[in-house]
Every structure is written in C-alpha cells, then in structure tokens.
C-alpha cells in the first residue's frame, strides 16, 4: 500500500471557516506535506457544530489515507465533554497520525473598552454588569471566558461564532466588546490601533504580541485547558500509510520556514508519533471534562 500511496490528491478537512488560525495553520503544513507525498493536499473547510460536522465526514470516509482531519480540542475534547451522547468517540473512531502543535490565545478588546490590561477589563465589566458582549469562535474561548467569568463573578453576554475569522470582523466593528481568540487575524488590527490586546493565555509572553502580559503576571490564575491541533484519519487506516504520514509531518514541522510561518500565528509546532498522540488525546479528554465542570458549563 505504501508503494502505491498516494496516487491522487489528499483531502485535509478543517472544521473551521477560512481566515482563522486553524485554517491558516493548515495551509502552512498542507503544502509541504503535499510536496513530500508527491500529491496535492487539498484543504476543505467544513465549519459548524463545534467541529462535529467535519469529524463525521472524516469518520465516514474510506480509511485509505486520502481523507485526513485537522482535529482540534473543540471537536475531540469539547464535544465529548459537553454532550451526553457524543456523535463519535475520538479515541476509538479515528486513526491518530501526528500532533501538529499548541495554539496561542490572547484577550483582545475593542478600543471603546476603557481597559489596557485584564485587571482594568474585569473592573469595567463589574461596573457594567450584563452590558458587555464577548465573542467566542471555538471551545477554548468558551471554556476560558466561562472560567474567568465564574472566578471573577462577572456578568457578560456570550455571542458565539463559527470561528475566529468572522469573530474578528464583529470585534473590530464593536458589535462585541472583547474576546479570547487566536492572533492570526487580530494581531494586525492591534498594530493598526483597531483592537487592543489585554493579555495572553500562554505560559510566557510571545514575540508576536510581546506587550501582552500572561495571566500570572497580572495576578490571575491560568486557564486550565490546552488548545491543540493534530492530524487524524478514519478508523482502520493501513499502518504503513499512517506511519508514512506521521513521519512526513514530524519532519516538516522541524523545517525553519514552517516554524517561522507558525510563529506568525503564535503557534508552537510539535510533532508526535501516533502512540504519543493517543496518550495526549486521552489526557486532554480528562482535562477538558474537569474544566467544563469547573467553568459551570451544563452538559446537554
């Protein structure tokens, strides 16, 4: 199978709309993966239902290595944590290929909000209970903002989006006042003065937005979830095909130009074997279930 694979283009299904960090990140590794395989890797975006639409499409695809899933914590940690009857089992219904890495998240606000850091934002929200809207384009934003609101006793209005791409448009337009999101499309708006950055969820400051202090630097507890991305295939993919894909991904994630591209998204590339990815996935499922309980989010 490996000698013949691949003999046609490979689909990489991304569960978020164009313009966000996940789709932008998929572009960074899809092209060199295609070059390594000798076939084009075509990105197909299927947003909606917290990634479950994309996951379902991959789960039902032929396990031949021609349909891959750029899974994130939203589809594989959030969905199992908040649904009583999840539509799939991330561990048993998919073939792990390789970790891609860890997403960097920041807190952004519209300039109309009189705050330059997290402490000032919290004070402003407390002074205006129920008057500020916050947007979320993914599960990390939902859980992190819910944790923040619960810990700091804040009353805010949640406005959900299908991804960070459409969210940043409304944040710049002032229809939502603040959001925890990836910096891919928001960082340029900070440079141009259309948005402010109030802090980062990363453990240390990031060169993309070095002025953003960590939660710990601002005297706040760090958020308890890890935002990640990894490649999976349908259950039952041939082991030789899976291992070739894993090797190619691990190799390309070490390339300087790939790491530089991810650096512009504050994304930390981190490849893995299929076994390491399985262990990581199981740990994250347990971690996210605890975080959902901690944030007071109801399971439906």
Number of helices: 10
Work out the helicity level.
Answer: 25-40%
- End-to-end separation: 42 Å
What ranges have pLDDT less than 50 throughout 5 or more consecutive residues? none
Spatial sequence of strands, sheet with the most strands: 2-1-3-10-4-11
Assign an overall shape: globular
Mean pLDDT: 94
User: What would you report as the Rg, rounded to the nearest angstrom?
Assistant: 19 Å
Judged by helices, strands and strand pairing, the structural class is alpha/beta
Strand content: 15-25%
Largest β-sheet summary:
6 strands, mixed
**Count of DSSP strands:** 11
Q: How do the helices and strands follow one another from N- to C-terminus? A: EHEHEHEEHEHEHEHEEHHEH
Report on this structure.
The chain is α/β, with parallel strands linked by helices. It has helices at residues 21-37, 52-59, 73-82, 118-127, 139-152, 164-172, 187-191, 239-252, 256-263, 274-294, and strands spanning 10-14, 41-45, 67-72, 94-102, 106-109, 133-136, 157-160, 178-181, 196-200, 228-234, 268-269. The strands form two sheets. A six-stranded mixed sheet has the order 2-1-3-10-4-11, sandwiched between helices. The protein has a five-stranded mixed sheet with strand order 7-6-8-5-9, sandwiched between helices. Strand 6 (133-136), helix 5 (139-152) and strand 7 form a beta-alpha-beta unit. The radius of gyration is 19 Å and the shape is globular. The N and C termini lie far apart (42 Å). The model has no long low-confidence stretch (mean pLDDT 94).
């Amino acid at each position: 199978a490996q000698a013949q694979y691949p003999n046609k283009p490979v689909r990489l299904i991304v569960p978020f709309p164009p313009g966000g960090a996940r789709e932008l990140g998929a572009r960074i590794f899809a092209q060199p993966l295609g070059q390594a395989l000798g076939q084009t890797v075509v990105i197909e975006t299927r947003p909606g239902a917290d990634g479950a639409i994309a996951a379902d499409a991959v789960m039902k695809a032929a396990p031949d290595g021609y349909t891959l899933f750029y899974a994130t914590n939203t589809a594989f940690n959030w969905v199992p944590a908040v649904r009583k009857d999840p539509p799939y089992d991330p561990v048993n219904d998919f073939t792990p290929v390789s970790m891609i890495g860890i997403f960097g998240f920041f807190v952004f606000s519209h300039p109309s909000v009189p705050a330059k850091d997290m402490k000032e934002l919290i004070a402003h929200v407390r002074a205006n209970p129920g008057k500020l809207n916050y947007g979320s384009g993914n599960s990390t934003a939902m859980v992190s903002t819910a944790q923040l609101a619960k810990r700091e006793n804040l009353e805010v209005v949640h406005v959900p989006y299908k991804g960070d791409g459409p969210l940043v448009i409304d944040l710049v337009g002032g229809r939502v006042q603040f959001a925890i999101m990836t910096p891919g499309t928001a960082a340029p708006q900070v440079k141009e003065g259309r948005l402010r950055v109030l802090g980062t969820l990363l453990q240390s400051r990031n060169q993309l937005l070095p002025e953003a202090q960590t939660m710990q630097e601002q005297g706040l507890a760090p958020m308890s979830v890890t935002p990640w991305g990894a490649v999976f295939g349908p259950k039952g993919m041939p082991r030789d095909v899976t291992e070739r894909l894993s090797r190619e991904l691990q190799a390309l994630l070490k390339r300087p130009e790939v790491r530089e591209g991810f650096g512009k998204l504050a994304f930390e590339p981190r490849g893995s074997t299929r076994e390491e990815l399985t262990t990581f996935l199981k740990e994250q499922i347990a971690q996210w279930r605890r975080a959902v309980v901690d944030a007071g989010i109801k399971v439906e």
